[in-house]
Amino acid sequence: MGFVKDFKAFISRGNVVDMAVGVVVGGAFGKIVSSLVADIITPLISCATKGANLKELYYCINPNAVEGQTFTYAAYPTVAAAHEAGYATMNYGLFFQNIIDFIIIAFCIFCVIRAIAKAKDAAEAKAKAEAEAKAAAEAAAKAAEPPAETVEDILKDIRAALKK
Hints:
two-stranded antiparallel ribbon; mainly alpha; 2 strands
């Protein structure tokens, strides 16, 4: 029972649940970014490169692999076609697309973390200002109060009354 109890305590901690939510949201966010790259940025790059598809940019590593055939990129316009014919390829287009995905995800995470840090700094500044204002108000209230009579003051008043 100790293992199950320990596991339940581990799972019920708030940071584990937060991490799980983060993983799920991160996965969904990754799909959005991949779609942004594949469906919006890649077509723009394709227009700029006169129709070249980023995913289909590759380098044939073994152009002499198939006997009796001379490898040409025109004959094998896609990575799949080159693989099907038996050629090994270095798919640098997919690598570039993954770099673009990474940069966009990193930029978005940076923006979120920066916004959270600014909000945290603003909250801390507000709390500090409120604490300073409260301390100033307490000091002003204390200064406005008449000084409390001490035992010596009371004894002096009694002595003065007795002298009269």
